[in-house]
Write a structure and sequence with these properties.
The chain is mainly alpha-helical. 65% of the residues lie in helices and 8% in strands. The protein has six helices and three strands; from the N terminus they run αβααββααα. It is elongated and about 45 Å long.
Length: 125
């Protein structure tokens, strides 16, 4: 399954973050974590876990849940898709729109400069 095809709703995203933060995680621990963080029953947790496994995001083997797609890869793909669809793939246009409403801190500006320098040197990924 291609990563671009994985779409998550808000509740699924919150649940996925719990898995990513705790993996590898047993299903019993995941039930407890989901109840604490989301107020979910075991049935709801099982249903959402099964759905996300079917989407190709996670897998369960012998009662242990692990990811097939890392959090970093998932959100990188989602971000790239958003910039592509909303700003015709232009990161500068995205950054301009973002910084119009939320001013960048000096630390954020330095981080962006550092990223650009790495890309110029061929070190960016």
């Amino acid at each position: 399954m291609e990563l671009k095809e994985i779409h998550l709703g808000e509740a699924e995203t919150r649940f996925a973050k719990i898995v990513w933060q705790n993996e590898p995680v047993t299903t019993s621990a995941l039930y407890r974590l989901s109840k604490e963080a989301l107020g979910w029953t075991n049935s709801t947790t099982f249903t959402v876990l099964r759905r996300l496994c079917k989407k190709g995001l996670f897998r369960t083997e012998e009662g242990v849940v692990t990811s097939l797609v890392s959090r970093k890869d998932f959100f990188a793909e989602q971000s790239q898709k958003f910039v592509s669809e909303s700003f015709d793939g232009s990161f500068p246009s995205f950054l301009a729109a973002f910084s119009e409403r939320q001013k960048l801190t000096p630390e954020e500006i330095e981080a962006v400069r550092s990223m650009i320098e790495k890309f110029e040197k061929g070190e960016g990924s």
